[in-house]
Amino acid sequence: MTDLSTPITTVVGAKTGALLKSEFEIESVEDLLRHYPRRYEQRGALTDLGSLEIGDHVTVQAQVKSFKNLKNAKGGTRQEVVISDGTGSLALMFFNQHWREKDLAPGRQGLFAGQVSVFNNKRQLTHPEYELLADFTEVNADDYAEAFLPVYPATKKLQTWTIERSVDLVLAGLGEVEDSLPVEIRKSQNLMDLTIALREIHKPSSLESLDASRLRLKWDEALALQVVLAIQRHEEEAWPAISRSEKPDGLLAAFDARLPFTLTKGQQDVAKTIAQEMTAGHPMHRLLQGEVGSGKTVVAVRAMLTVVDSGGQAALLAPTEVLAAQHFRAITNLLGPLAQRGRLGAHDEGTGVTLLTGSMTTAARRQALLDITSGQAGIVIGTHALLEERVDFFDLGLVVIDEQHRFGVEQRATLVAKAGSDRRPHVLVMTATPIPRTVAMTAFGALDISTLSELPAGRSPITTHVILATEQPSHLTRAWERVVEEVAAGHQVYVVVPRIASQEDKELAPGQRQAIALEDLAPQLISGPLSGVRVDVMHGQMSGADKDDVMQRFANGPAHSDGIDVLISTTVIEVGVDVANATMMVIMDADRFGISSLHQLRGRVGRGSAPGLCLLVTEAPPFSPARERLAAVASTNDGFELAALDLEQRREGDVLGRNQSGARSSLKLVSILRDEEILEQARIAAVAIVSRDPELVTQPALARAVQSLIDQARAEFVKKS
Ligand code: ADP
Ligand code: MG
Predict the structure, then answer these.
(1) What phi and psi values does residue 483 have, to the nearest 5 degrees?
(2) How far apart are CA 285 and CA 426, in angstroms?
(3) How many CB atoms lie within 10 A of CB 160?
């Protein structure tokens, strides 16, 4: 008798077994049964051939309409077969295979699989694989009695019908299987047994039971995932952390006293939550999300000062050197004399603020490392350089991670471990990319979430317009005039381009052109429309020191002797750069950026009291998705609305980011976006299970499912690194 752990080769034989392994890493009966059909064909209802796209690997059910044996110019023959499903037709092409005529007689029905290509303006499959149904007269035979024909994720070497036959063999020999879903959950959620669900998803007896089987199997994935997260959290919470609280008349109090503005209600609420959580004896894990410019940094600085007040250190990890340097400047400014411990004019309660990045000189780095180790630096700001082994904190009490989606889970773990082997720091992660709760929870592990939804008072909204460079070239001319006017009014402007250099040697798809390059545009602007203003450039290939110099001069403002009026740059300025005097941004080839990038980018302007203007320049054709995307960005400033739109247009995998938990690969049925309800219910169930039985001793089958999820995530991680 086979069970789920039986090696697949013992059921399907060595040859098919080897294919299953090489194509889909299927090794056990369970692996195969969890290789779910991608879709189902209903017998009789033929696929919409008209909807096939070039390059798709497809399996279609259709009928042979005609068979032609043709001679090629060079002496060979070719066989042109036309198949149809009633809505469209498709050519099959074979070379020198006239014997196919007896297979592919007009009227025969079958499944045809191959890659869609175009020849003579017609869609075709070249040398497709096929399997013919029994003769017409036999269509109602038992073999074809079932209503739904599963179509599996397949490859060129392993066709869907081979997989289907393997599944048939497995199901024929399979008895009752052990159910990994605890019986209480099955009862309370009214879910199908695993044994039945595994049969139904491969061989649905009706649409209703197919739905029920999918729901049940989604639960398997959702629960295993949530149990992994719950265990992670349980373990993290089991670590001790040092309780950190503000000192009366300490640094935080001095900071609040000199803050030039009052905190928004949202900032106050989050600050209170954070203060409370950091007094607990176990580590805080909080995600702070909020629009660009919503004032997350101030909240983070207050948390850092709380830790410094209590004698500890805080580290802020930023994704780029530009951003780290920017944070360093902004925080030093906000702190004023409070950041000057030991120096003349310093405040009694001051602390050291230290920057650590990869491009620092050896001497500067040595000093920074020393300050970090000795505790002189209460606040440490840095890039990936902070993760290096030689960075050794005196007493790391809080880790703040900015733009967390740019970092992987492992990187967070590396920094967190620097608090010592016997305790954990508090953790605050910040992101300006709003994401649905379940996505956040899955991508970022078990974090609590706070959201800053209001912008500080006195901000002027950003107006965004789309400029159609090919259709309305005069608008682009006007845009450059507007840039000059903006500068004349004492403001500053960003011009953003998609790439540094043009890629002459790159092959372009038909109708595509080179993206506008900084190297080409900058000289044109400097000698042309922007000749009267001070222009400089910044891009990712410049050294850290050069970037920093440009950014510093741009931040100095136009009044400064070496100030910069217009900064032409790549997306190095995408995240977090904060120059309040910048009021206008022109984004060239805006269609080459994603929705969230555009939203992030334009968040760089309108940060002061003057209104912001963003121009999205594009040559995308009318009615193209790119143009719709730009129109959407222009129509709203609501980051959450745009995030939802973005998610719709992208696959979820991209949302989670390649660096995030590998766990998603095991989410075959459950969708982090659409199955929010299941994921939430599963989370509640998982927390209950783990708090009762963290080792899962009473749930051996669930424990195995969870272990296999962890193993998979680990394997993915190893593959990637
Ligand atoms: P975020 O990191 O969320 O994009 P920042 O923290 O950089 O936003 O804040 C943007 C700007 O707004 C900064 O110049 C900051 O000093 C300022 N700011 C923050 N909070 C307030 C507030 N409550 N009132 C006025 N200005 C604020
Ligand atoms: Mg910020």
Answers:
(1) -60, -45
(2) 6
(3) 22
Atom of ligand 1 nearest to the CA of 267: 23
Q: Which residues are registered as beta bridge partners of 124?
A: 91, 117
The model's confidence at residue 547, banded by pLDDT at 50, 70 and 90, is: confident
pLDDT digits (tens, 9 = 90+) for 686-721: 999 999 999 999 999 899 988 887 777 666 544 444
Which SS3 state, helix, strand or coil, does residue 683 take?
helix
The atom of ligand 1 lying closest to the CA of 263 is 23
Residues whose CB falls within 8 Å of the CB of residue 488, separated by 6 or more in sequence, listed in order: none
One-letter amino acid for residue 279 of the chain: T
User: What is the rounded CA–CA span in Å between residue 110 and residue 307?
Assistant: 70
Nearest protein CA to atom 9 of ligand 1, as residue: 295
Phi, psi dihedral angles at 529 (to 5 degrees): -60, -25
Q: What is the model's pLDDT at position 157?
A: 87
Using one digit for the tens of pLDDT, what is the confidence trace for 626-684?
888 899 899 988 877 787 777 666 544 433 333 333 333 467 888 776 788 898 899 89
Angle, helix 296-309 to helix 265-278, in steps of 10 degrees: 30
Pocket of ligand 1 (CB under 6 A): 261, 263-264, 267, 290, 292-298, 432, 456, 576, 578, 580, 607
CA of 456 to the centre of ligand 1 (A): 7
What is the predicted pLDDT for the residue at 7? Answer: 96
Shortest-distance ligand to the CA of residue 263: 1
Ligand 2: centre distance to CA 91 (Å): 56
pTM of the model: 0.66
The residue whose CA has the least distance to atom 23 of ligand 1 is: 263
Instruction: Using alpha carbons, select from 407, 430, 427, 431 the residue that is nearest to residue 417.
Output: 427
Instruction: State the Cα–Cα distance between residues 176 and 599, nearest whole angstrom.
Output: 53
Cβ-based neighbours of 374, under 8 Å, separated by 6 or more? 394
Given a contact cutoff of 8 angstroms between Cβ atoms, the answer to whether 468 and 326 are in contact is no
User: Rounded to whole angstroms, how far apart are CA atoms 648 and 417?
Assistant: 37
CA 362 to chain centre: 36
492 backbone φψ class: left, alpha, beta (φ>0; ψ -120 to 50):
beta
Substitution candidate for ligand 1 out of 297, 454, 455 with most atoms within 8 A of CB:
297
Task: Express each pLDDT in 198-247 by its tens digit.
Answer: 999 999 988 889 999 999 999 999 999 889 888 888 887 888 999 999 88
**What number is the average pLDDT over the span 346-360?**
83
Provide the edge-to-edge strand list for the sheet that holds 612-618: 462-468, 612-618, 582-587, 492-496, 566-569, 535-538
Of 391, 400, 385, 399, nearest in space to 320 by CA:
385
